[in-house]
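Section 5: illustrative case.
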């Protein structure tokens, strides 16, 4: 029972205490005078009676009523019902005072003063019950008694009111009367746990709308600040009441003030959450609140500030809740669109609607909290239940760990209250308990169907309504209201009387006495066990990952664990990766813990090392995905296991698994330990009571085991039973139980102190992980700080006092761990009520526990260092080239996938990367060899390698491996052969070893001198880097070259030479070698007439030999081929030749970087050359390098001019009037030189020096054939494109005909648009085409075009007499090439995969601008080809003459001259233009330490790419294949051959490299020149040959050069992981052999599939899927081998095929189109378009389609080698071969029989044998002098089949017996006779 009202008071306006304008209220009377014990009188009620402030008003206002809510210090709510009416003030003085107060400022107002002012007076009831209507009626009655002057004494009414007692709950109705003829019925709710809301919830939704209220609801639950605004006080109270009602079953526990007085507004800036209502009057004061959500009830808005983020309900709940709410509030919405809507769809009445809305929220909470009781831990049952909620488990089972809203709700105060109130298992239950326990299944099934939900909600609403209104409403109310007239005519009403205190007090005392004597009302409280409801099933993860718990995965996990414990390690290893993948899923992790549990006996499981390692790996993998809160309880389940699994390590030392799984964040989380502790305590307490019960049970019944109800009794059920029995126990038993529980908790605390020390103390306690400062120190840990920040914070104060972190002793580890455990113990022991004595005991124990543990760990740590390393995959050794040696043996690394997706399995197929293996550093390459981590491809071998010389960038990276959770240090190595290796060093590789590796790599990459490169050190001892001082092998050559230079210095005018000490030019100075004479180390004065010094007179014999070598160089052979000059012995020249070979540079004195012999015009003496060369950069003056055989135009190359040269060259106005004195002499000489070149052209000489049009036309247009005419206009267009003029030339391609006739006069500058316009055949500026006065008639076209650099030719002026013209173009800078190449590498071989569309391959390719650069080079080249083809000579004079110039000049020759498109020709072209003319290979390739800073610039690669582009467009014009180009591209940077080392011939001679190829080879297997290597390889295999080769006669190629026509070279993209790059052919052959030998053993395994899967990034496509012709040639070879015939060379077979085909074609008169097309050579222009499609056109066999070689093509004859003695006798070959033929020879011991070509040579008295008939290289020699006898033999093992026995014979020598076998017995007899006759002849 409870009092209806605690206090009644009258509050009036306080006239005495009036501040300026602000009145105050004061309590006039209060009953009872003294406070009740159970509810003290609330302070400050006066403020709440007039929340907007006490004020006097000029006219009477209607009476008002509202209920304010006050909360006292015990957080009990008091409801203050305020009834306010207004009384007139009659006191005249007061009126005066008030008036003056009203208008202090304005005197005139005093005249119109109101006659009367009114002051407010409030009647207030304070109650703990919330009956708004009853209070309104009671206070109204008191007022009515006063106003209407009823006869009832006021005291009686108030007395009755204060003594009225009613029940709190139970649903009974109570009728009360206050003795004024009134009667009221008070209806109590059935269950007071449910809030009573009336219709306030429905009102709230009507005012604000569904979404707004949901926002407020979520905000209130997640502890935000909420402020209601309204101009009505009662509405504020109702809104707050409504909001609290929908929060049920959670109770709001923060500040709750439905009506806040204006005076207390500063409360709004409190930092804690609140729900507060404020009158709209104060709206402006609420504006500056930044973090308060404001709900305006009158306007229906909710304003959420920007800085506030409200977490909303998780979907789909939010959506479903909104749907159901709208069905309640607006049922018409659903049928609004129906054509025939049902007639009645009115929403329910407000009261019912209110309950329906609350039903929705109840249903929502039941869904949110379903199964919460299964996550309660009961820690103590007696004396009071102590209960904790296991939040992590709850979230984990609901798979809502990510959900913000639920996390916040569970962390909030309201939920804590919920747990403490609803946690106890034995208590009264309410509607919510019932819902959660019994309706969860229904809710789950119906949640998706709104109508079913609606039905459920209606049921709930009915219950809620019944709770408030159990009986039908009774109309028994009778309450007086004041009569109308009394309200209006109360002008002169008497003031509210003061009552008689004593009378009222008597009433109260009387009632109190009555209550005392009355028997106590015993409310039978229905306590019972709270049902838990169904346990939470595994709700499928939200992303529907049913995969996670597929049975197959669990089976894999189980099998693997079984294998481990059965010691089947190989099987386990195969399954391991699959298991580690499966452990990402929760079900698999749970399964793992269960499986491992079964292998633990008596808390121990002793494993051997490998088992231990696997188990630890699985544990680590399982834990690494656990979050810090461990929501799935995985870490909790593993905790007992990590202290169970162990391995013996030596005498009495055991290592437990926990020392290997400490690196996980979960162990450092306090919440985790608490949850673990509580669950363990719960289990122990349950066990404690189960024992006592079982004991009793056994006494009472002899119940057989297991015949119980088959279900375990949960801890909560036990607790409920115990709580029920508690009152029945005796005091002693109660005490005993309390003690038992307390000591259980205490013992668990000790146990946990131990456990925590296990997992928190690192194995190596000297390394304090808590104090790690650098991230680098911990290669092996993911979480650097091993204890989370919270701990670090708590330890900070102790660290700051020390001097520094580094020298912290191990005791620091101990201290920090002790502190952590102490904090834990304090927390849990206080919560679970452990006595203080016990707590103190614990605190003293903990440091000892930690110390002891540290000591045991030290022993373990010592032993663990001695462990043998774990067995990892065997390191595979790579094949090495002959002469290649290991510098560092294999270090175990992991090859990590980079941005190329093929190998990672993203494009399909199992991932080949990551792979585990080793990295090897050899003198030549960097090789990774290993096996993929993925067991499905575990048998494959992955190889990635690149030459160490091609390394362009190396950077350190840190990598997290998928297999382990450790971060490894690694390296990312990029190579300019388009390879990228990302490696992570295994943990077994010490970091200093990795550092040594890097140092060695750098040393090898950048040797001190070029002699340190592999091409030089190959095959020498394994010294790291050859020092510059070591004695060179080629001593003779070295001295020779020195002598050469010395003699040169001697002979060139002895008396004039000034010697400087010779030092080879350093790399840095090389670039700045100005050719000023004084800088040359041989300074020659000009007086010596050098023309008098002929070669023969000045050279000694040794030098002469060198000179003849020079003559044999590539350039010289080519000059002779082109007819550019000959060197006869006497060096006399035929004078009619326009050019001569000059030896002016034979000593490399004129130009260091040019070859020794140069082609210059016949008329220019050497002295002039020496002068001219100074005008050009690097002294590279113009020399002829090619002549067009048809037009006799020549191609020259030079460097750009020095700046002063340009000025002198172009600016001097060469008028005949001015004498030579004005002009610079060199400039004149230069002009003379150019003139000489021009006059050497036949076209010039024919026009007899006069520039007449007729002369020009006759000579020229007659020679050019029709095809030229078609092509001519193109040049102008080309020129324009190249020069980049802005004008478009649309008409040029269609204009046929001759060149335009008259030359334009206005030459503004050297590169105005005019040049292009003229060349394009456009009209000249003269409109009539006639000449202007000063204009000389001159032919259209210059004789010589100089392609120059735009930047240098600025401001040059040209003179109309000169016959040359400058074409300025923009060249790409070396820097541009370098940067472009870097970007190209990143595009083709990205270091990491990215989904960024701006980083896609094509976008990166475009940004690299590589294609644009190719386009530019090709475009210039095509222009030059066109110019040469039309008869003008061209001089390419760009940059220093060794980069772009070389590219252009070589491409021009390649396009113009078919010879250069053969294998021999291309070699010659590269040797001539790139090597002899001094392209700086070493510098551009950054091959030595000196050039390291300049970086890698792939000028030669760019050239090869251009050739590749041309090759793609003209596949039938090249004898060599694309592979040939890739081969060169790879080896020009690989430093395997000496060909591409050094920067010029001069340097090569200095080092003695240039001519060594001629000398005897010490080791024939080591090729020093790439060309020899290619020749040899070409003989063996057609890999360099292009079967489509069928060239046109004299075809000039004109490729398309636009970007759209260029393709990305596949050299940049392809990779072969099976064997590494295929460009080191020896390795390839060896690998195949190794592979062939291996299967022979393993063939017994059963039938093998014929299918072979070809992976684009793994297999070598050309090998796996060779083209048809290669395949046929291979088959032919293998068949010949099987039949025992000597196999022919592939080239011979191929040539035979082609000649046969040609004759066939001739025989067939009606040949098919394709074959005739192939065979004919005159369809010159159709071929370009059709040749490409040949494969598709129906032709003959595949060979028929292989395009043919023209009859003129020179077969690639191997040059005879000087290494055999036999070469001396070549001329008389026929006489020496007295007998020859094929014999099978048995090899040495255990070697097979092989067919060989034998030659019996009487002259030399030898029997020689060769691989085959055509072979020039002799394989072996049997000296007949050593032969003792020839006898018939017998067949031995492995002899050829199907051969008669008599065909065998043996040859016995002094050393061994040779077994031979001829084709038949006859043949054998012949051989025996011949040998015998030779022997007898001797």
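Designed sequence:
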């Amino acid at each position: 029972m409870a009092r209806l009202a605690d206090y009644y008071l009258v509050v009036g306006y306080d006239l005495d205490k009036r501040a300026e304008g602000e009145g105050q209220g004061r309590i006039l009377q209060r009953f009872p005078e003294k406070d009740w014990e159970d509810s003290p009188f609330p302070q400050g009620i006066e403020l709440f009676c007039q929340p907007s402030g006490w004020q006097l008003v000029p006219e009477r206002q209607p009476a008002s009523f509202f209920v304010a809510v006050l909360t006292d210090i015990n957080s009990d709510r008091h409801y203050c019902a305020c009834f306010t009416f207004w009384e007139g003030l009659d006191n005249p003085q007061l009126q005066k005072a008030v008036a003056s107060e009203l208008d202090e400022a304005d005197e005139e107002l005093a005249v119109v003063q109101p006659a009367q002012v009114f002051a407010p007076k409030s009647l207030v009831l304070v109650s703990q019950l919330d009956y708004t209507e009853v209070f309104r009626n009671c206070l109204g009655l008191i007022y009515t008694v006063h106003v209407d002057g009823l006869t009832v004494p006021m005291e009686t009414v108030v007395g009755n009111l204060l003594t009225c007692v009613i029940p709190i709950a139970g649903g009974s109705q109570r009728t009360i009367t206050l003795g004024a003829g009134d009667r009221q019925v008070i209806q109590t709710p059935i269950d007071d746990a449910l809030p009573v809301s009336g219709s306030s919830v429905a009102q709230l939704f009507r005012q604000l709308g569904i979404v707004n209220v949901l926002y407020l609801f979520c905000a209130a639950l997640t502890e935000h600040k909420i402020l209601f605004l309204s101009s009505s006080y009662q509405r504020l109270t109702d809104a707050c009441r409504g909001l609290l009602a929908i929060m049920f079953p959670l109770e709001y526990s923060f500040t709750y003030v439905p009506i806040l007085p204006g005076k207390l507004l500063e409360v709004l800036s409190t930092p804690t959450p609140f729900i507060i209502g404020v009158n709209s009057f104060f709206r402006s004061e609420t504006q500056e609140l930044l973090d308060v959500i404001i709900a305006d009830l009158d306007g229906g808005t909710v304003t959420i500030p920007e800085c506030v983020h409200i977490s909303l309900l998780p979907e789909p709940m939010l959506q479903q809740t909104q749907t159901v709410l709208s069905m309640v509030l607006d049922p018409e919405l659903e049928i609004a669109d129906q054509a025939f809507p049902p007639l009645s769809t009115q929403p329910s009445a407000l009261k019912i609607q209110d309950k329906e809305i609350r039903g929705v929220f109840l249903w929502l909470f039941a869904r949110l909290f379903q199964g919460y009781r299964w996550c309660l831990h009961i820690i103590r049952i007696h004396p009071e239940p102590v209960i904790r909620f296991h939040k992590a488990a709850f979230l984990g089972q609901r798979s809502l760990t990510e959900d913000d809203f639920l996390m916040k709700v569970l962390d909030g105060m309201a939920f804590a209250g919920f747990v403490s109130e609803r946690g106890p298992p034995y208590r009264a239950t309410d509607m919510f308990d019932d819902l959660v326990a019994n309706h969860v299944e229904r809710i789950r099934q119906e949640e998706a169907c709104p109508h079913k939900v609606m039905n459920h909600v209606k049921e709930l609403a009915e219950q809620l309504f019944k709770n408030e209104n159990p009986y039908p409403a009774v109309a028994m109310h009778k309450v007086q209201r004041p009569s109308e007239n009394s309200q209006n005519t109360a002008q002169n009403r008497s003031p509210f009387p003061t009552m008689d205190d004593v009378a009222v007090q008597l009433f109260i005392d009387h009632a109190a006495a009555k209550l005392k004597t009355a028997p106590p009302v015993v409310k039978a409280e229905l306590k019972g066990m709270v049902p838990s409801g169904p346990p939470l099933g595994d709700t499928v993860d939200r992303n529907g990952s049913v995969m996670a718990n597929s049975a197959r995965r669990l089976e894999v996990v189980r099998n693997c664990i079984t294998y481990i414990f059965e010691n089947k390690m190989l099987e386990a290893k195969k399954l391991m990766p699959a298991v580690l993948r499966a452990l990402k899923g929760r079900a698999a992790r749970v399964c793992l813990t269960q499986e491992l549990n079964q292998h633990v006996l008596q808390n121990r499981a002793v494993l051997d090392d490998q088992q231990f390692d696997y188990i630890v790996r699985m544990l680590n993998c399982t834990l690494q995905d656990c979050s810090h809160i461990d929501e799935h309880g995985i870490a909790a389940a593993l905790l007992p296991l990590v202290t169970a699994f162990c391995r013996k390590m030596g005498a009495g030392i055991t290592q437990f698994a926990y020392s290997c799984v400490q690196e996980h964040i979960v162990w450092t989380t306090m919440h985790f330990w608490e949850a673990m502790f509580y669950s363990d305590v719960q289990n122990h307490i349950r066990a404690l009571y189960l024992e006592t019960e079982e004991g009793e049970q056994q006494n009472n019944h002899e119940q057989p085991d297991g015949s119980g109800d088959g279900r375990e009794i949960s801890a909560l059920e036990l607790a409920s039973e115990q709580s029920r029995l508690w009152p029945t126990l005796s005091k002693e038993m109660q005490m005993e139980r309390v003690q038992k529980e307390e000591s259980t908790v205490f013992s668990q605390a000790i146990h946990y102190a131990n456990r925590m020390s296990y997992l928190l103390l690192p194995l190596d306690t000297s390394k304090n992980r808590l104090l790690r400062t650098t991230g680098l120190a911990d290669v092996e840990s993911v979480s650097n700080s091993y204890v989370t920040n919270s701990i670090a914070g708590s330890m900070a104060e102790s660290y700051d006092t020390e001097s520094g972190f580094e020298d912290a002793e191990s005791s620091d580890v101990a201290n920090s761990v002790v502190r952590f455990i102490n904090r834990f113990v304090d927390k849990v022991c206080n919560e679970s009520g452990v006595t203080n004595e016990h707590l103190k005991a614990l605190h003293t124990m903990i440091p000892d526990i930690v110390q002891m543990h540290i000591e045991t760990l030290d022993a373990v740590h010592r032993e663990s260092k001695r462990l043998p390393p774990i067995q990892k995959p065997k390191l595979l050794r790579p094949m090495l080239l002959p002469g290649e040696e290991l510098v560092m043996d294999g270090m175990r690394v992991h090859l990590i996938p980079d941005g190329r997706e093929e190998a990672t399995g993203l494009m399909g197929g199992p991932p080949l990367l990551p792979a585990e293996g080793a990295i090897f550093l050899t003198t030549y390459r960097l090789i990774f060899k290993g096996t993929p981590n993925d067991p499905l491809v575990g048998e494959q071998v992955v190889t990635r390698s690149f030459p160490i010389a091609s390394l362009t960038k190396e950077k350190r990276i840190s990598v997290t491996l998928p297999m382990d959770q450790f971060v490894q240090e690694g390296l990312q190595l990029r190579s300019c052969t388009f390879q990228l290796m990302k490696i992570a060093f295994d943990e077994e590789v010490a970091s200093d070893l990795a550092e040594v590796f890097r140092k060695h790599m750098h040393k090898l990459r950048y040797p001190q001198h070029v002699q340190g490169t592999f091409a030089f050190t190959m095959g020498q001892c394994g010294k790291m880097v050859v020092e510059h001082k070591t004695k060179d092998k080629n001593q003779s050559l070295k001295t020779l070259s020195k002598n050469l230079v010395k003699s040169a210095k001697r002979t060139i005018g002895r008396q004039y030479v000034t010697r400087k000490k010779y030092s080879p030019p350093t790399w840095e100075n090389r670039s700045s070698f100005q050719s000023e004479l004084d800088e040359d180390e041989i300074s020659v004065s000009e007086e010596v007439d050098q023309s008098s010094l002929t070669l023969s007179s000045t050279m000694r014999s040794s030098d002469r030999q060198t000179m003849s070598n020079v003559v044999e160089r590539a350039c010289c052979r080519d000059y002779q081929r082109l007819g550019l000059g000959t060197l006869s012995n006497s060096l006399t020249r035929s004078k009619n030749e326009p050019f001569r070979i000059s030896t002016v540079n034979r000593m490399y004195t004129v130009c260091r970087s040019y070859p020794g012999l140069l082609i210059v015009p016949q008329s220019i003496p050497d002295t002039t050359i020496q002068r001219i060369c100074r005008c050009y950069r690097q002294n590279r003056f113009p020399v002829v390098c090619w002549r067009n055989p048809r037009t006799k135009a020549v191609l020259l190359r030079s460097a750009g001019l020095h700046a002063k040269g340009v000025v002198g060259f172009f600016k001097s106005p060469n008028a005949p009037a001015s004498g030579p004195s004005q002009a610079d002499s060199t400039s004149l000489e230069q002009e003379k030189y150019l003139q000489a070149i021009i006059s050497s052209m036949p076209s010039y000489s024919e026009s007899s020096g006069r520039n007449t049009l007729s002369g020009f036309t006759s000579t020229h247009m007659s020679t050019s054939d029709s095809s030229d005419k078609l092509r001519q206009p193109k040049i102008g267009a080309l020129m324009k494109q190249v020069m980049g003029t802005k004008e478009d030339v649309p008409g040029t391609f269609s204009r046929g005909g001759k060149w335009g006739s008259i030359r334009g006069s206005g030459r503004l500058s050297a590169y105005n648009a005019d040049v292009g316009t003229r060349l394009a055949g456009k009209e000249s500026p003269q409109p009539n085409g006639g000449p202007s006065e000063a204009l000389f008639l001159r032919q259209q076209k210059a004789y010589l075009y100089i392609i120059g650099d735009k930047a240098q030719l600025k401001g040059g002026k040209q003179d109309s007499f000169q016959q040359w013209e400058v074409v300025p173009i923009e060249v790409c800078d070396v820097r541009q090439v370098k940067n472009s190449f870097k970007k190209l590498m990143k595009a083709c071989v990205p270091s990491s995969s990215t989904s960024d569309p701006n980083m896609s391959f094509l976008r990166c390719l475009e940004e690299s601008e590589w294609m644009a650069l190719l386009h530019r080079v090709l475009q210039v080249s095509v222009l030059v080809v066109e110019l040469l083809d039309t008869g003008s000579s061209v001089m390419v004079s760009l940059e220093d003459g060794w980069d772009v110039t070389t590219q252009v000049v070589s491409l021009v020759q390649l396009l113009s001259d078919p010879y250069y498109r053969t294998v021999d020709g291309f070699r010659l072209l590269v040797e001539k233009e790139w090597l002899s003319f001094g392209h700086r290979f070493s510098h551009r390739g950054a091959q030595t330490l000196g050039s390291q800073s300049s970086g890698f610039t792939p000028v030669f690669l760019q050239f090869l790419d251009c050739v590749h582009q041309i090759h793609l467009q003209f596949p039938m014009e090249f004898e060599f294949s694309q592979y040939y180009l890739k081969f060169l591209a790879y080896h020009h940077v690989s430093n395997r051959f000496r060909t591409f080392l050094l920067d010029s011939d001069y340097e090569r001679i200095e080092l003695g490299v240039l001519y060594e190829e001629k000398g005897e080879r010490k080791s024939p297997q080591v090729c020093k020149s790439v060309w020899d290597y290619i020749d040899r390889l070409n003989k063996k295999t057609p890999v360099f040959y292009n079967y489509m080769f069928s060239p046109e006669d004299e075809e000039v190629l004109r490729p398309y050069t636009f970007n759209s026509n260029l393709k990305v070279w596949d050299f940049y993209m392809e990779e072969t992981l099976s064997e590494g790059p295929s460009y080191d052919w020896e390795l390839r052959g060896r690998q195949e052999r190794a592979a062939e030998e291996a299967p022979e053993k393993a063939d017994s395994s059963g039938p093998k599939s014929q299918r072979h899967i070809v992976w684009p990034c793994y297999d070598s496509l050309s090998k796996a899927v060779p083209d048809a012709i290669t395949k046929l040639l291979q088959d032919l070879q293998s068949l010949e081998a099987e039949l025992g015939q000597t196999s022919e060379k592939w080239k011979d077979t191929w040539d035979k095929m082609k000649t046969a085909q040609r004759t066939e074609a001739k025989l067939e008169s009606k040949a098919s189109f394709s074959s005739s097309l192939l065979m004919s050579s005159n369809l010159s222009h159709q071929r370009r378009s059709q040749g490409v499609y040949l494969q598709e056109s129906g032709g003959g066999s595949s060979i028929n389609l292989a395009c043919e070689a023209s009859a003129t093509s020179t077969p690639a004859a191997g040059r005879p080698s000087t290494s055999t003695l036999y070469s001396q006798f070549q001329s008389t070959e026929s006489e020496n071969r007295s007998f020859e033929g094929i014999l099978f020879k048995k090899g040495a011991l255990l070697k097979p029989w092989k067919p060989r070509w034998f030659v019996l040579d009487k002259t030399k008295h030898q029997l020689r044998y060769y691989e085959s008939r055509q072979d020039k290289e002799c394989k072996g020699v049997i000296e007949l002098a050593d032969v003792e006898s020839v006898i018939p033999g017998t067949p031995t093992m492995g002899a050829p089949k199907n051969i008669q026995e008599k065909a065998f014979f043996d040859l016995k020598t002094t050393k061994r017996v040779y077994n031979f076998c001829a084709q038949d017995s006859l043949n054998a007899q012949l051989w025996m006779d011949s040998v015998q006759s030779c022997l007898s002849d001797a």
